[in-house]
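Quick one, T. Sequence first:
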Amino acid sequence: MRRIVTLKVSTMTDDMRAEYDFTRGRTNPYSQRLKKQVTIRLDVDTIDYFKALAKQTGMPYQSLINLYLADCAANEREPMLKWA
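Structure tokens:
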């Protein structure tokens, strides 16, 4: 035998609206600085370098990589490529 459960959603939301007032709320000031998850392939030596640097600084290695890339982008650095 199956039981059917019914919820009074409208009553629940009405109770919440009465309890919480967001009319004076403000938008998240950091919403423009949100990070996006991506998949990137890095050399093992590069990851090891940043992991060792992370141990020295006490920062997560992914944050260090992000800081380095952000600095490159902010200063418009271009890679030095040499084709053989």
